[in-house]
């Protein structure tokens, strides 16, 4: 407590001639460790424990804004191309194949964004999100490519569904599609 009954400011400069207040924690020991390890000990120490038992971590250095601006633009472009790939993968069949090109572009953009983020020492959720987006682009590309062997069956289903107005007509289209897929699978297995 200060002279007037209020708590003293611990950050204020000490008046000349005053003694330093008692410290709540001890300074880390300097010099060689007491167990005789001497200069053979590793240079880095494990983080010291605080009073509550948790370890004290050194704060991360912030990423340079001059690096983050182009990196965030690259990530935004990656996300937009990935979104376009997702939307195009639901389009009718001739146009659906365009999502393969967009998936490849998203994979390249994601790879460069991931490399730049790693070099800029950006860690955490951003790295995971970029990697997950790259996995999604690979999955979308492969799922779209899987349509190629059954192109004629898919086109027939698509034509049937375009003309199906009633629910029973849609069920008929689905039944024909399923039967055609089973016939194709039987032809593959022999």
UniProtKB/TrEMBL annotation:
Q: Where is the composition biased (Basic and acidic residues)?
A: 46-55
Q: Where is this region: Disordered?
A: 1-64
Which key words tag this protein in UniProt? Membrane, Transmembrane, Transmembrane helix
Residue stretches spanning the membrane: 75-91, 97-114, 126-151
The molecule here is called Uncharacterized protein
| Protein's organism | Sanguibacter antarcticus
- Show the taxonomic lineage: Bacteria, Bacillati, Actinomycetota, Actinomycetes, Micrococcales
């Amino acid at each position: 407590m200060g002279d007037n009954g209020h708590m003293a400011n611990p950050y204020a400069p000490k008046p000349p001639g005053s003694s330093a207040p008692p410290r709540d924690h001890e300074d880390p020991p300097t010099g060689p460790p007491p167990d005789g390890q001497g200069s053979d000990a590793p240079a880095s120490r494990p983080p010291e424990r605080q009073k509550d038992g948790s370890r004290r971590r050194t704060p991360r250095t912030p990423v340079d804004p001059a690096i983050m601006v182009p990196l965030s633009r690259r990530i935004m472009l990656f996300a937009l191309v990935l979104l376009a790939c997702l939307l195009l993968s639901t389009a009718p069949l001739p146009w659906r194949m365009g999502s393969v090109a967009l998936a490849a572009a998203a994979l390249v953009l994601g790879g460069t964004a991931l490399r730049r983020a790693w070099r800029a020492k950006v860690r955490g959720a951003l790295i995971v999100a970029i990697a997950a987006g790259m996995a999604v682009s690979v999955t979308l590309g492969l799922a779209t490519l899987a349509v190629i062997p059954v192109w004629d069956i898919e086109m027939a289903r698509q034509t049937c569904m375009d003309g199906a107005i009633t629910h029973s007509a849609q069920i008929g289209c689905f039944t024909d599609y399923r039967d055609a897929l089973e016939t194709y699978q039987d032809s593959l297995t022999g």
